[in-house]
C-alpha cells in the first residue's frame, strides 16, 4: 500500500522512537529553543495526508504544515513541475531578468482573485508576513496615509511590523519598541460576545468598537487600511460574520480606507472557496487587497499580494519587491497547485470534508461538556474546549493533553486561540474518507480519556 493510502500506525514501543529521539537530541543542540516543537515526529517521507517517521511510524496529519499542504504532501504533479523547472533554471531576480512562470501565475491569480477593480496586478514575496507587510506598504503608497487598523485575536506574522499587527503579544515578548501607527479594534468573537447580547446587537457593538478607534487613536483620514482575516487562524478559527464585513466595507468606502483581506491561511480552497473573501464578494463587499501565502505553492516558499492596477501602480518605485520574490521553482509549483485544485475539485472536496467534520464535531458538542463551540468555513474548523459550557471558562489544559495523546496514537493536531483552548482542523484536502474517520476515532477516544 502506498503511504498516501495508509492509516495511522505506531510501530515503536514509545514515541519518539529510537531514531527520532536521536534526531530530536541533535535538534536541541543546534536549533534555538524559541523555535519550539512539542511533537515526537521526525519525518522520513510524506504523501497526501500521511507522514512516515524515521522509525517507520505512520502519522495522520491534521496540521498540514499549518495550512500549507491543501493539495497534500509531495503531490506527484508538483514534484514533476518543480523537477522540470529545476532542469531549466532555479532563479533569476525578477528586477533583473523576466521569467514567464511569474507572469503566468500572476495572470491566473489576477483572473480569480475576488478583489475590487477590473484590471488587477500581482506581486510575489516569500512568506505570509512578507505578503501582509507589502499589503500595508501598498495601501500606504496608494492612500498616502500613515496608519492602519487591525483586530484583537489577529495574527499577521513575526517581522517587526507584523508582530505589532499581531494581537497575541506572546509572539512579540521582549521585542519592542514597536512601530507606531498600528491601532486595534475588537474582532467579532461571537461565542464570547458580551453576556446577554443578541448576535445582531453584538455586530453593532463590534462595529462601534472599530469606529471608536477613529475617536481614540487615529482619525479616519489618517488610516490607510483596515487589515483583517476572513477567518482568524491563531486567534481561534473565528469566521468574520458577513454582516460585520458589510459594515467594515461601508466604513472603508465612506472614509477612503482600503480593506485588506489577510488570506495567508484561508486561501487556496481551504474554506470551500478558492479564497474566503469570495464569500465577501458574493455579499457585495469584496476587499481591495488580498495577501495570501501558505498553500499557494504546496510547500515551496511563496506569497502574493493581489490588488487593482490603480492601487498597485500608485506605489512608489523601489518600495516593494525582493530577491527571492516569485522564485522560478515556487512559481512552477504555484501554477501546478491551481491546476490540481481545479482538476481534482478540491474546492468542492473542502466543502464535503467540512460538512462531515461539522457533523462529527457537532455531535461531540452535544455529548461532551468540554466541547463548547464548533465553528469555521469549509475544511477550516475550530473546536473550542471549555471547563464548563455555562461559564465558558477556557480549558487549555485539556487541549494540551489532547495534542499529546493524539500524537501518541498517530494523529497530529494543533492548538490555537487567544486562550490556547482551540483545536484547529487543517488536514490536507486530499485526505481519504477512511483516514478522516480514523482521525475522528483517535481524537474522540482521547477526549474520553481526558475527561
TrEMBL record:
UniProt-listed Enzyme Commission number(s): 2.6.1.19, 2.6.1.22
Q: Which Gene3D superfamilies match?
A: Aspartate Aminotransferase, domain 1, Type I PLP-dependent aspartate aminotransferase-like (Major domain)
Per the record, the similarity remark reads: Belongs to the class-III pyridoxal-phosphate-dependent aminotransferase family.
Q: Which PANTHER family match?
A: AMINOTRANSFERASE CLASS III (PTHR11986), LEUCINE_METHIONINE RACEMASE (PTHR11986:SF58)
Which species? Anaeromicropila populeti
Read off the Pfam families from this record.
Answer: Aminotran_3
Does the keyword field hold Transferase? Answer: yes
InterPro entries associated with the record? 4NH2But_aminotransferase_bac (IPR004632), Aminotrans_3 (IPR005814), Aminotrans_3_PPA_site (IPR049704), Class-III_PLP-dep_AT (IPR050103), PyrdxlP-dep_Trfase (IPR015424), PyrdxlP-dep_Trfase_major (IPR015421), PyrdxlP-dep_Trfase_small (IPR015422)
Q: What is this protein called?
A: (S)-3-amino-2-methylpropionate transaminase
Involved pathway(s): Amino-acid degradation; 4-aminobutanoate degradation
| Example GO BP | gamma-aminobutyric acid metabolic process
Q: Which UniProt keywords apply?
A: Aminotransferase, Pyridoxal phosphate, Transferase
Molecular function GO labels:
(S)-3-amino-2-methylpropionate transaminase activity; 4-aminobutyrate:2-oxoglutarate transaminase activity; identical protein binding; pyridoxal phosphate binding
What cofactor requirement does the entry state? Answer: pyridoxal 5'-phosphate
> What reaction is this protein's catalytic activity?
(S)-3-amino-2-methylpropanoate + 2-oxoglutarate = 2-methyl-3-oxopropanoate + L-glutamate; 4-aminobutanoate + 2-oxoglutarate = succinate semialdehyde + L-glutamate
Q: In the UniProt record, does the keyword Amino-acid biosynthesis occur?
A: no
Amino acid at each position: 500500500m502506498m503511504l498516501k493510502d495508509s492509516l495511522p500506525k505506531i510501530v515503536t514501543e514509545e514515541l519518539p522512537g529510537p531514531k527520532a529521539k536521536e534526531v530530536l537530541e541533535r535538534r536541541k543542540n543546534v536549533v534555538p529553543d524559541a523555535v519550539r516543537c512539542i511533537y515526537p515526529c521526525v519525518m522520513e517521507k510524506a504523501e497526501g495526508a500521511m507522514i512516515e517517521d524515521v522509525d517507520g511510524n505512520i502519522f495522520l496529519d491534521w496540521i498540514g504544515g499549518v495550512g500549507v499542504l491543501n493539495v497534500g504532501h509531495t503531490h506527484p504533479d508538483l514534484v514533476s513541475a518543480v523537477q522540470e523547472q529545476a532542469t531549466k533554471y532555479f532563479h533569476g531576480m525578477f528586477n533583473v531578468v523576466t521569467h514567464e512562470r511569474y507572469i503566468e501565475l500572476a495572470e491566473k491569480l489576477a483572473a480569480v482573485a475576488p478583489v475590487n477593480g477590473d484590471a488587477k496586478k500581482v506581486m510575489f514575496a516569500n512568506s505570509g508576513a512578507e505578503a501582509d507587510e507589502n499589503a500595508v506598504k501598498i495601501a500606504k503608497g496608494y492612500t498616502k496615509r500613515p496608519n492602519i487598523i487591525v483586530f484583537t485575536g489577529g495574527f499577521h506574522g513575526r517581522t517587526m511590523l507584523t508582530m505589532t499587527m499581531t494581537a497575541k503579544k506572546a509572539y512579540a515578548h521582549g521585542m519592542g519598541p514597536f512601530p507606531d501607527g498600528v491601532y486595534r479594534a475588537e474582532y467579532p468573537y461571537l461565542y464570547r460576545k458580551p453576556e446577554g447580547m443578541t448576535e445582531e446587537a453584538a455586530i453593532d457593538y463590534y462595529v462601534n468598537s472599530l469606529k471608536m478607534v477613529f475617536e481614540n487613536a487615529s482619525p479616519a483620514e489618517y488610516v490607510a487600511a483596515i487589515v483583517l482575516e476572513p477567518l482568524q487562524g491563531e486567534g481561534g478559527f473565528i469566521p468574520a460574520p458577513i454582516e460585520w464585513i458589510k459594515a467594515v466595507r461601508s466604513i472603508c468606502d465612506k472614509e477612503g480606507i482600503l480593506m485588506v483581506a489577510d488570506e495567508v491561511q484561508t486561501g487556496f480552497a481551504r474554506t470551500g472557496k478558492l479564497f474566503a473573501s469570495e464569500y465577501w464578494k458574493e455579499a457585495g463587499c469584496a476587499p481591495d487587497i488580498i495577501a495570501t501565502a501558505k498553500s499557494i505553492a504546496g510547500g515551496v516558499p511563496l506569497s502574493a499580494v493581489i490588488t487593482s492596477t490603480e492601487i498597485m501602480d500608485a506605489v512608489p518605485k523601489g518600495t516593494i519587491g525582493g530577491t527571492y520574490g516569485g522564485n522560478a521553482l515556487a512559481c512552477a509549483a504555484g501554477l501546478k497547485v491551481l491546476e490540481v485544485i481545479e482538476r481534482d475539485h478540491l474546492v468542492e472536496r473542502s466543502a464535503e470534508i467540512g460538512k462531515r467534520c461539522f457533523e462529527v464535531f457537532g455531535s461531540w458538542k452535544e455529548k461532551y461538556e468540554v466541547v463548547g463551540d464548533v465553528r469555521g468555513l469549509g475544511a477550516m474548523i475550530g473546536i473550542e474546549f471549555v471547563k464548563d459550557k455555562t461559564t465558558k471558562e477556557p480549558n487549555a489544559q485539556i487541549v494540551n493533553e489532547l495534542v499529546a495523546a493524539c500524537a501518541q496514537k498517530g494523529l497530529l493536531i494543533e492548538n490555537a486561540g487567544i486562550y490556547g483552548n482551540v483545536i484547529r482542523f487543517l488536514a490536507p484536502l486530499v485526505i481519504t474518507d477512511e483516514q478522516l474517520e480514523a482521525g475522528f476515532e483517535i481524537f474522540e477516544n482521547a477526549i474520553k480519556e481526558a475527561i
